[in-house]
Amino acid sequence: MKAYILLLVLLISWFAAAQSPQNDRPLEIDFLLNYYDQDGKHSAVTGGSGTEELSDHAGKIIVNVPLDSSSSLEVAVGLNYYTSASSDNINSNVSSASSDDFRGEWHIGYQQSDPQTHRSRGFHFSGSSETDYISLGAGLNWAISSADQNRWFQIAVSGFADTWMPIFPDELRRDAGNLISTYRRYTSAFSFNYMQVLRKRLQLSLSTELIYQNGLLSTPFHRIYFSDFSGSGLERLPDERTKFPFAMRLHYFWGDHFVFRLNYRFYIDSFDISAQTIGLEVPLKFSRVLSLHPFYRYHTQAGARYFREFGLHSIDNRYGTSDYDLSEFYSHKRGVGLRYAPLYGITAIGLPFTKAGLQLSRMQIRYANYEREDGLKANTVSLHLGWIVN
Q: 108, 125 in Cβ contact below 8 A?
């Protein structure tokens, strides 16, 4: 671990020293730490009945490198370590080998803007992997803004190619290969985003996306149980899915101390899931450097036509799932964040082999509590540290 930290410091030093003298934009580094835990009684691994206990520790580093006055490179790496009591039930004989896993991810993106035409464009590549899953992605984006910066429009396209290395429930492994025709999944997404300043204190943004997926869309180690007491089967879902989300945001600046951020999202897909989400965040600025961010979100969803509870699936049905993420439910999420960002930073340290310095410019801590109608409860604590190299 010490070797990785030393390597990171050396890379930061090299990037800082390599910046063009004509470029006055600092290199930015964001450290994100997150802890998540949940518990419930409707695990999809055991057919909709069983523990959903899970904990996840995640860390991510994002480095934004300005190449010149109009272009920048972003590099991000992340690592998750999670333990899951429900995954431990993939085998009938509980085995600690399946109760924990690592997930790694990376992202490389390039962005360029033209101040004369008010246009920008960029591309990115990404990837992630864990024991039974590998994903690769790429995307392009193009945007234009008005001369006064009061209007902004973006088009983006992205694609992902995923490969399962499936782990099946032990009692179903003999016949699983006959039920699944592919271990690959492909996703294409087209998104449109629009932002406009309606008044001096009021901003509106709209976004929509069209997502198409094909391939293995079910999870290989999820079970279903049949109503005729014949035992268990694999979760099976169609090999095509289309998703259509639409979102709207309103930001209203009330005086010098309050900002009202109202969010609404509508979602529909070809599995017959429809959902609506409304959220409100009201940052309270105590001063120019310190602010409190309470927030609340309400979500309601109509379930997929393939969902049945534990033991209610018909053996004659081609498709079936007992994953409560695809069920009918409503949920609440509430929490609070605290942000501290003084004008001249919080603290600074010198970097070896260069005259550059590393300055902690801002920090934010955030807590959220989540409750779903079926009894699932979760808590999240996150820490964001923003650094600049100058």
A: yes
